[in-house]
Design a protein that fits this description.
Number of strands: 0
Distance between the termini: 39 Å
Number of helices: 8
Helix content: 55-70%
Order of helices and strands: HHHHHHHH
């Protein structure tokens, strides 16, 4: 058995999208949303699996705290969580490869045409 996360490289399992018109009309909303997400990323980087497990446990009421801590510990040991929200071109290409191999992607889109990292870059600083 192998860890998919360790063997595959960084795959952006969660992504958010918005129309260009929304981004242009509501940069303050996007900036606040991105800062909030980065704050969560910062918390994960600065806390132990036990601390994280305690905070997230209400979301997993059916699972005991020790199990949540074990799972969080595995994620931490595998370096599953990035320290920022910047969606790199390498990760984008890896995601396209996975979708293509699964038969879920009809055609590729240039990274620069689809990804805007400016909000994530601001949130890191």
């Amino acid at each position: 058995m192998a860890s998919l996360g360790e063997d595959s490289g960084y795959v952006p399992y969660t992504a958010f999208s918005a129309k260009k018109s929304f981004l242009e009309k509501n940069p303050d909303v996007i900036e606040a949303f991105t800062r909030a997400l980065q704050k969560g990323m910062d918390y994960v980087q600065a806390h132990t699996p036990a601390e994280i497990a305690k905070v997230i446990s209400p979301q997993f009421a059916e699972t005991d705290l020790a199990t949540i801590e074990t799972i969080v510990g595995r994620y931490a040991a595998q370096d599953t969580w990035k320290s920022d929200l910047i969606f790199s071109e390498d990760s984008f290409t890896l995601l396209e490869n996975i979708l293509e191999e699964a038969g879920e992607l009809d055609g590729r889109v240039p990274y620069a045409d689809l990804v805007d990292t400016s909000f994530a870059e601001k949130a890191v600083h």
